[in-house]
Amino acid sequence: MFARTRRPTIIDAVRWCVAAILLLAGAGHVQNPHLVLHDVLNYELMIGIAAVWIAILLPFCEFALAALLLSNCSHRPVFALAALMFGIFAAAQWSAWSRGLVIDCGCLGGLSRRPIGAWSLLFLSSLFAVSAAGAVAGRWLPPHHPNTVNGD
């Protein structure tokens, strides 16, 4: 017979929103890799080749996480990876803010230039919390069957 499609859940809406933010950030970062490197170096947490590799790989990691969130794969591990990435970003911003650095957050690359402040700290801390909640909430959700309702 015909398989019934399942209805979107709140976790679907969350993963679509997080994926959209990651795609936007990746697009902003891939447009100007030199600006990304400049932003990474401004945090004063790493220097040299490590900063270069972060600047090179960051947009592709964001695109990969977004693609995985939009796919029909298991979302718990992807949310966990997103939470790890957002947690690192949030920790870097809290560190820079606590040291009194007046720098751009670099959240969206060249698409938006905002200094680190309450907005950027809240933004990244919220993304971390939402991604962590997605990783944890997946434990109590039924198995994901992309094309059916209740595994029919």
User: Structural class of the helices, strands and pairings?
Assistant: mainly alpha
Low-confidence stretches: 147-152
Overall average residue pLDDT: 85
**What is the H/E string?**
HHHHH
Distance between the termini: 10 Å
Taking all Cα atoms into account, the compactness measure Rg is 17 Å
Strands, helices and their partners?
Layout: H1 10-31, H2 33-42, H3 48-70, H4 75-98, H5 118-137
What would you note in describing this structure?
By secondary structure, this protein is mostly helical. It has helices at residues 10-31, 33-42, 48-70, 75-98, 118-137. The protein has five helices and no strands. The relative contact order is 0.19. Mean pLDDT is 85; it is low at 147-152. The protein has one domain.
At a glance:
The chain has helices at residues 10-31, 33-42, 48-70, 75-98, 118-137.
Notable characteristics:
152 residues; mainly alpha; 5 helices; 0% strand; disordered C terminus
